[in-house]
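Researcher: Following up on the earlier apo prediction. This time include the ligand. It's adenosine-5'-diphosphate, with the SMILES given after the sequence.
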Amino acid sequence: MGKVIAVANQKGGVGKSTTVINLAAFIGSRGRKVLCIDLDAQGNVTSGYGIRKKTVQYSSYDLLIGRAGIGEAVIATEFENVSIVPSTSALAGAEIEIADLDDRLKRLKMQILMCRDSYDYIFIDCPPSLSLVTLNGLVAADSLIIPLQCEFFSLEGLSQLDQIIKHVRSNENPSLTIEGILFTMFDPRLNVTNQVVNEVKKVFPDQVFETTIPRNVRLSEAPSYGMPVMYYDKSSKGTEAYARLGCELLGEKYTEKPKKKLTDILKSKKKNKSERK
Ligand SMILES: Nc1ncnc2c1ncn2[C@@H]1O[C@H](COP(=O)(O)OP(=O)(O)O)[C@@H](O)[C@H]1O
Ligand SMILES: [Mg+2]
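Model: Understood. Below is the ligand-bound prediction.
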């Protein structure tokens, strides 16, 4: 049965969608079957995987309002072992449509139950809010990845999210765990970075990923080409960071493929030349 991991933080622009896209791609490349569920009306994971929203027949909106089953909404992507339940702007209307239903918090969970056996990992990209849609993600998940930027206000956001997690645990989803807090756009040269890291580790000991994600321009360019960073630039810092995170999640050792240095290539060329003489 696949593990369901929601990527959540009510703050926008912290790297949730980027994490879903690139973590899923790496884990898929390691031979695991992965499903990404795009739960954000902005559809960044959908477009980041090169899926044009105009071509989408059923989306996460249809799942939540019960107009389609998850099997109908899943599309295979062009990338190894990754499928996706896309999202479109229609999702913005779901909130109102499900608000009065008794099972409004469990609608996604019920859908996921029907397909859990077909995947090793299911990642849910939550919207930047503490809405009913986000709660559907938290109720459906086994664990959470919380991307965090090292800013002072992140701490307030984190404690607010922690309260929601506790609430969900004591009601709909007692076994919800924190997979890890992930520092994104990480810059260890800044004082504030170290202050925030220390503070978070104090409050959430053993719940912080060892891997941090640096700021890397390739990570922000890749979505506009509709591909995860590892396919866009395999030697970028962004590719390496998400590979490290993927290994940490899978409990595997990260081993960097040895890169040939330019000086080594020139040396071996020289050697070949002198041998021919
Ligand atoms: N590590 C990074 N380095 C550089 N740019 C990043 C990084 N992570 C995310 N971005 C960019 O920052 C913006 C917000 O990231 P995104 O993943 O969409 O955040 P969220 O889903 O939390 O709103 C996007 O333009 C994205 O391409
Ligand atoms: Mg997003």
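Model: The pocket of magnesium ion (ligand 2) is lined by residues 16-17, 40, 44, 125 (CB under 6 Å).
Researcher: Noted. I'll compare it with the apo version next.
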